[in-house]
Specification:
By secondary structure, the chain is of the alpha+beta class. Helices cover about 20% and strands about 20% of the residues. It has 2 domains: about 40 residues, no CATH class; about 120 residues, Electron Transport Ethylamine Dehydrogenase. Strands 2, 3, 4 and 6 form a 4-stranded antiparallel beta sheet that branches. The N and C termini lie far apart (about 70 Å).
């Protein structure tokens, strides 16, 4: 026979779960106020929209990343570094040292690399990774004018000189004569 104390106001028998829930609710009500409950609820309501901003490892999102993050990257190639569409030249502005007697990362004989450079982030279509590229002007001789390229990925206005490709970066060398530009990989952009 059921215990008469376990009957509710309507005469329905309560099970153990109802009794435990009632005790927990009474315990919480006796230990907290409405203001503290509303403060906690408000804190959670303010914090929940920030959850998508937390750093989360998204392996699947990286695999589904677009193959070409910019118009330049969509047509970039990784075989011929003497062409303007070579992947490292996404933010270059000037003559290519590869066509002036130098290399992708070396100045032609008789010129000197500038001590400063501007940077860009270029997408390599072979390994589908983005790399930080330091563009350094080679100075000391007149421009060779063999292959003049203009890449504008990530180009910023002159008041942000670290990513502006319109500045002749030959200051700090013995001569302000511009010859060509190199494109050195500094590291990965990921």
């Amino acid at each position: 026979m059921p215990n008469p104390e376990d009957r509710g106001a309507v005469g329905v028998t309560r099970n153990g779960l109802d009794t435990m829930a009632e005790r927990l609710a009474r315990h919480l009500a006796g230990r907290s106020s409405r203001r503290s409950a509303l403060a906690r609820l408000g804190g959670w309501a303010a914090a929940i929209p920030a959850f998508p901003l937390l750093p989360v490892w998204r392996r699947d999102a990286r695999a589904a990343a677009p193959a070409a993050p910019s118009p330049f990257a969509a047509k970039a190639q990784a075989k011929d570094d003497t062409k303007c569409d070579y992947w490292r030249y996404c933010a270059i502005d000037g003559n290519l040292c590869t066509t002036c007697g130098g290399g992708v990362h070396s100045c032609p004989p008789g010129t000197h690399p500038s001590p400063t450079s501007w940077i860009g982030t270029c997408f390599n279509p072979q390994d589908r990774r983005a790399y930080l590229i330091a563009y350094r002007d080679c100075c000391g001789q007149d421009a060779c004018n063999e292959q003049n390229c203009l890449g504008t990925d990530g180009d910023l206005p002159t008041y942000r000189p670290q990513a502006n490709n319109d500045i002749i970066w030959c200051f700090g060398t013995g001569s302000l004569l511009y010859n060509c530009s190199t494109a050195v990989i500094v590291g990965t952009a990921e």
